[in-house]
Design goal:
mainly alpha
Length: about 60
């Protein structure tokens, strides 16, 4: 994952690379939340949107 973050080439398919990048984005989102944030629906939906970005249509990402 560090190689991907640093922009270095790794042997993986584009879909796999995008999935890892999405996971990194979710972790970054979690990191910026306040330390004692209550995990509410809005936060979960944003985490879902970030996770499925470029895998699901925009209208489906972050929705149920």
């Amino acid at each position: 994952m560090i190689l991907l973050i640093e922009g270095k080439g790794i042997l993986a398919g584009e879909k796999d690379l995008k999935e890892v990048q999405n996971d990194v984005n979710v972790l970054g989102y979690i990191y910026i939340l306040e330390e004692n944030s209550i995990i509410v629906e809005k936060i979960l939906l944003e985490m879902h949107r970030l996770t499925v970005k470029d895998f699901l249509p925009d209208a489906s990402a972050g929705n149920y």
